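Tokens as discussed.
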């Protein structure tokens, strides 16, 4: 009887423990199921497909003049005359500045006199040599003196000419660096001349676009500073070598009339001769990161998971990107929800875009 009293409480306690354990197991399984459901991410995906993209290449840049020259002195001395003013037009060969030339004129007179004497001596010794009254050595020495005098005369003439600083091109004075009384040395910049008889632009075109351009292709140019005005031009040069940034310098020359278009203005250039682009394309929204270091999440239908993949991109047009490597036609890439999944995340395809 005493033994029965002891067994009954033990059985009751064991039943309670078993019931609690069963309830806890059931609760844990429910929580695990809920966690699994919570990690399944709804996404929207689109297949990679071959398509033709209409291309309208547009770039921005600044208008450049035909030429800009920093005019420098080729001699040393003090400036005694200045013939320029800011904004004044000059023609090639016009004298812009005059340096003190008194000493150089004296040097030229001396060189001229030495040359005349050497010339006279050479004529006299040539006659004597023909008569047999002068040796070959004497004649060669006189001829050497004549050539030295001639070289010194040329140098003196050039030195005097260098005291006149002349315009190397026709254009407009846009900077005046020195004035009368200034001491200058060879290489001292005295003024700047801009030749705006032609206007051009230098644009850095991406490598994926440059091959659709050709010299002579037409362009349209517009500036926000001149609303409603459209200017025209043509491609005049395409660099044969890319820069370190993998872009090709392309020169565009604008066709007159220029109207109020000025050098230095910020403009937009639209290339009219760009051909349509055929390639494997995906939406730009599917690409994470920059196009230089692009990655996408591809739908793995076998496991219903998202798989991260690196791709190489080409041109981008109208919200789509050309894929050069890393994808095949028909593979589905996630376009909505791709910023909240990781490699291996369970997903479910949704026909409507979810809030990201």
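Sequence:
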């Amino acid at each position: 009887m005493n033994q029965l009293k002891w067994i009954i409480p033990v059985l009751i306690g064991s039943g309670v423990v078993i019931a609690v354990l069963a309830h806890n197991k059931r609760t844990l399984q429910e929580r695990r199921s809920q966690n699994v459901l919570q990690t399944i991410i709804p996404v929207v995906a689109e297949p990679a497909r071959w398509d033709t993209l209409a291309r309208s290449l547009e770039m921005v840049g600044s208008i450049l003049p035909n030429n800009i020259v920093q005019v420098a002195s080729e001699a040393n001395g003090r400036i005694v005359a200045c013939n320029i003013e800011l904004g004044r037009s000059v023609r090639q060969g016009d004298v812009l500045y005059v340096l003190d030339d008194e000493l150089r004129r004296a040097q030229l007179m001396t060189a001229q006199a030495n040359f005349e004497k050497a010339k006279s001596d050479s004529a006299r010794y040539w006659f004597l040599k023909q008569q047999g009254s002068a040796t070959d050595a004497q004649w060669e020495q006189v001829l050497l003196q004549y050539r030295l005098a001639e070289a010194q005369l040329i140098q003196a003439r050039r030195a005097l000419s260098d005291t006149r600083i002349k315009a190397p091109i026709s254009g407009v004075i846009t900077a005046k660096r020195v004035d009368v009384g200034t001491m200058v040395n060879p290489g001292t910049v005295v003024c700047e001349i801009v030749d705006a008889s032609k206007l051009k632009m230098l644009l850095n075109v991406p490598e994926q676009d440059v091959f659709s351009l050709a010299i002579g292709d037409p362009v349209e140019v517009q500036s926000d500073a001149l609303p409603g005005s459209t200017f025209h031009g043509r491609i005049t040069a395409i660099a044969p070598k890319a820069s370190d940034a993998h872009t090709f310098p392309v020169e565009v020359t604008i066709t007159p009339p220029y109207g109020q278009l000025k050098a230095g203005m910020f403009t937009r250039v639209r290339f009219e001769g760009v051909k349509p682009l055929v390639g494997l394309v995906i939406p730009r929204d599917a690409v994470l990161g920059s196009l230089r270091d692009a990655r996408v999440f591809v739908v793995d239908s076998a496991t219903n998971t998202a798989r991260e993949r690196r791709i190489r991109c080409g041109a981008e047009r109208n919200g789509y990107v050309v894929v050069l490597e890393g994808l095949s036609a028909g593979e589905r890439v996630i376009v909505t929800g791709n910023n909240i999944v990781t490699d291996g995340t369970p997903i479910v395809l949704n026909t409507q875009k979810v809030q990201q």
